[in-house]
Amino acid sequence: MNRKSIFTFLLIISILNSCQYGLHSKKIEGNYYLTYVDDEFDTSVSYMFDDGSCVGVVNDGVYAVGFNSDFIIVKAHPFYRPNFLNRDVTNFYIIPLNNTVPEQVDENKIGPLTEPEFNKMREKLNIPQDIGFTMEVNYNK
Known about the structure:
This protein has helices spanning about 5-15, 115-125; strands at about 25-30, 30-35, 45-50, 55-60, 60-65, 70-75, 80, 85, 90-95, 110-115, 135. The chain is α+β, with helices and mostly antiparallel strands. Strands 10-9-6-5-11 form a five-stranded antiparallel sheet, covered by helices on one side. A four-stranded antiparallel sheet has the order 1-2-3-4, with no helix packed on it. The protein has a two-stranded antiparallel sheet with strand order 7-8. A hairpin with a 2-residue loop joins strand 7 (about 80) and strand 8 (about 85). The termini are far apart.
């Protein structure tokens, strides 16, 4: 192999494994995890496949999560430019766990929602009020 081939090979391997190395994760429920690579302020809710690869489901600055065996609820601050969260805005998401389609798992969410929209959808989907935001991400950026 020449140098160009070796570089190309290493680049492809790096891209294919990007979700495995340097990834910090904490299990939420099922195949869903809180994940970040570099900084906690960049925390996402991700779906991990059996082969170790993953896909982001909620990619904003996730800072609080609650769950039961049927739903994951998420609070996140959107980014207003790279590496800067808009802490004046909180988006809410609902991830149903009973109808996950693996081929479209990154689209398996309801949101972003405002707090009033979230509360209406929570009531409509019969998400119990005792599911609180029990997992928190403490980031200082």
